[in-house]
UniProtKB/TrEMBL annotation:
Coiled coil: none annotated. Residues 314-353 are annotated as: Disordered. PANTHER family: GLUTATHIONE S-TRANSFERASE OMEGA-LIKE 1-RELATED (PTHR32419:SF6), GLUTATHIONYL-HYDROQUINONE REDUCTASE (PTHR32419). It comes from the Bacteria. Residues 165-289 form the GST C-terminal domain. SUPFAM superfamilies: GST C-terminal domain-like (SSF47616), Thioredoxin-like (SSF52833). PROSITE patterns: GST_CTER. Glutathione binds at residue 90. It comes from Nakamurella panacisegetis. This is Putative glutathione S-transferase.
Amino acid sequence: MAEQGGPADLSTKGAYVSGGKEFQRDTNYITTRITADGRDGYPVEPGRYRLVVARACPWANRAIIVRRLLGLEDVLSMGICGPTHDRRSWTFDLDPGGVDPVLGIERIQDAYFARFPGYERGITVPAIVDVPTGQVVTNDYPQITLDLSTQWKQFHRPGAPDLYPEHLRAEIDEVAHRVFTEVNNGVYRCGFAGSQRAYELAYQRLFTALDWLTERLTNQRYLVGDTITEADVRLFTTLARFDPVYHGHFKCNREKLTEMPVLWAYARDLFQTPGFGDTIDFDHIKKHYYVVHTDINPTQIVPSGPDLANWLDPHGRESLGGRPFGDGTPPGPPIPSEVVPAAHGPLGDASRR
């Protein structure tokens, strides 16, 4: 969800740290919604929209996971940007000719400008684009996943889990809010802190929240209730990036995830659940953070470590009970065009050493 500058700036270098200041995330997104009743002018329609993501981005990763768990691949296509971007926007450099085959554009910025000429806010992923007009509909990432669960229900696969059950929504919202402010965004407040004091405050808040999560998850398998919910999706994408990126690159180094037994087992449990680990591209994750954030990694050297094969170690969380998909079933394998290359996963990482 990196935010880029104006169209004249072609540099790959980004400025993410404001000297002497605490990191403040711009959360003013395009709040247009795609709904069953089309209240904002964009009704849910199979094949009409394209979800644009980058596997490197934790915020986009949430949408990838939810779309896959709900089985929406056949009704909502997905365009995948490469792991790095310039200051204008994410680019489709993974596609032949560097052009998205459905939208016919080289960068997601073009879809933003098609609806909002000269759009001055962050050109972010995930974003959903209206294919017939080529215009961005929304980049409001927290609402996107909730709407996939609630507004697209008619098109969920048979056996799709209920990730946002009505009777648990208040608790899910409460937990997800703390996860966002203290953990999802907390790692960025550490990494992009503009002063020692701002960093230390952010560091304390982050690990206080991780300790709270450890306590919460010690005797229950999932964050809310006995099944996977939206809250677990939101925490997982940060945990998956913790040791490869946040521990070193963002100085979140009180402990590695692998040194926090409860959270490490919880993260492995989800990683080994269909729909979670099979969306994680460690190669893209490391390239994005270490190459793009040149103000905190000016050499752009991408670390070789850490060892990632241990993501596949037994987690033992089954002993806590719980039913990952409730009364539903796991999703099938990813569609061929969306399979993460084996070399970018835990086993591929291990084979390189």
